Every structure is written in structure tokens, then in C-alpha cells.
Amino acid sequence: MGLDTVELVIAIEDAFEVRIANDDAAKLTTPGEVTDYLMSRLRTDGGDPCPPQAGFYRIRSVLMTQFGIPRQQIHPDSSWSELFKSDIPNAWRKLGDTLAVDNFPRLERTKAFFIVAVFGIPALVAIPMLKSGVGFSLILIVYAVLAMFANTLTSGMGRLVPARYRTVASLIPYVNCADSRLWTREAVLAKVIEITSEQLGLRIDEIQPDSRFVGDLGAD
Fold first, then answer.
1. Quick check: is 216 in a domain?
2. Measured in Å, how far apart are the chain's first and last C-alpha atoms?
3. How much helix, strand and coil, in percent to the nearest 5, is found in the chain?
4. Within this chain, do residues 97 and 168 fall inside the same structural domain, yes or no?
5. Which of 35, 64, 150, 167 has the fewest CB atoms found within 10 Å of its own CB?
6. Are residues 179 and 153 in the same domain?
7. Same domain, 21 and 120
8. Are residues 26 and 93 in the same domain?
9. What are 102-117's pLDDT values in tens digits?
10. Exposed, middle or buried, 190 (CB in 10 Å: 0-12/13-18/19+)?
11. Tens of pLDDT along 46-105?
12. Alpha-carbon gap, residue 141 to 138, rounded angstroms
């Protein structure tokens, strides 16, 4: 795709808050075809769930605006370790806060940290009690209480993204639609033509649903 068509696709993505894959974009040659494509990915009925493309768009927008990550680096299969590098704990917390997602997945503690915090620290209290002759039953109770307390206290100190959430796509189900509008084909087509007019510098009456971006409308 040429620069004109790339910028047109980006403008359409931003306006409708959906992601248009490069392979799909290359096949969309007219405003009518773009409209048909969008209608299959937008909410057209109150009972429709949030389309996956809308969820991805919202995550990508946050990553671009709040983290400064270039658009071309963000894909559904991009891993968080690639995007956030070594600052995963702070970045993960910021991502959850920005998305305002209920029950946002927590980072996992490393095995070594979990063992030391949940089993090791309570043992530091239990062992001296054992040596001083305190009853074994009481020691078990104290150890269990301390272990549960340590587990609760350190549950928010994880540094590892859980395996099932290691890609951008895995968080899409957690993200609600930023835009709750219900679209009709007429509204979508009118918006696509309006965007095309703005991006290509043409009058709206010069653009027909079957006008080809490359050729008829002068896009490269």
C-alpha cells in the first residue's frame, strides 16, 4: 500500500476503533468494500458483544499514547516481555489502571520468591519456637497463620506475566468497547466517505461507494 492508503486505513481505524489487518486492507479497494468489512466488525445490535477488533484497538491505543510504543510493533501476538522489556511490574500496573479493567490479571510471583515468602519467613518464627519447647500443635497453628498472612501480603508483588496472558490478544476479552454506539450501514458508509474526503482532499460528492481509492480517487 502507498502512503495515501496507509494513512486512510489508519484514519478509518481511529474513527471506528477497530483494527484492520494489513492483508485485509490490501483487498479493500472502494468505500463500499470498506463499509461491508466494517459492518462485520462493528456493533450493529444491542445484543452484540464487544468485537475483538475493538478490544485490540483500545489496548493498542493505550500502548501508543501511554507507553510510547510505535504502532507497527503492536500486534495481537506481540508478547508483553517484548513490549515492556524489563519494566513489566510497573508497566503492567499502569496498563491495568489505564484500561480500568475489573479483575485485571495479577502478575505471578517467581517460585523462589513464593517459597521464601510463604514458607521460609514463617519458618524463621516456627523454628525458634520448636527449639524452646513450645507444643507442636501450637507451632503448626502459628506457622499456618503466618504462611497465610505472608501469602496475602505478597500476592501483589508478582513480576511474571501468567503464561495464559503473555500476548496482547489474551487480554482482549477483558477489555470493554470504548464506543458503545450501534452502527447502520448508511452511517458507516457516510463516515467512510467523509474520512476519504478529508484524507485525499476531495469533495464528498466526488466519492461514490464503488469509487476505487487507487485510480478513481487518486490515492497511491
1. no
2. 7
3. 60, 0, 40
4. yes
5. 64
6. no
7. no
8. yes
9. 788 989 998 898 899 8
10. middle
11. 665 566 677 888 899 899 999 999 988 999 999 999 999 878 899 999 998 898 877 889
12. 5
